[in-house]
Amino acid sequence: xxxxxxxxxxxxxxxxxxxxxxxxxxxxxxxxxxxxxxxxxxxxxxxxxxxxxxxxxxxxxxxxxxxxxxxxxxxxxxxxxxxxxxxxxxxxxxxxxxxxxxxxxxxxxxxxxxxxxxxxxxxxxxxxxxxxxxxxxxxxxxxxxxx
Length: 147
Fold this sequence. Notes:
It is a single chain. By secondary structure, the protein is an alpha+beta fold. The chain has a single domain, classed as 2-Layer Sandwich (Alpha-D-Glucose-1,6-Bisphosphate, Chain A, domain 4). 29% of the residues lie in helices and 49% in strands. The chain has a seven-stranded antiparallel β-sheet with strand order 1-7-6-5-4-3-2. Strand 6 and strand 7 form a beta hairpin. The mean pLDDT is 91.
């Protein structure tokens, strides 16, 4: 339905970048609206783990169900996200450029949007979906580089 690819170069080594990416305690540092992540089944961070993720934007709560489909960190991480009105997959690639720089590329693929307005907005104004992804990666970059 809609695919988004975003890349940032982070001025930190691969192991540092992945340390902050892999720990959900830091999600609030770079994902606006993040409230909590609760493990429902499986082992946290491992393939097959299922977690409920809660976000709040402008007083509106949104719950996502995350299923980790492939955790091959420090190089790749893949997950599926389900919401009552949409589904998407995410693949993150971490590539060391040198000893002190890491390229982080995120691929988001919206596979289902079944609510009329969001579906229409995805078609007419795809930047509404692309901008938050870019912002989260830029926020992550700033957070990691400040550590």
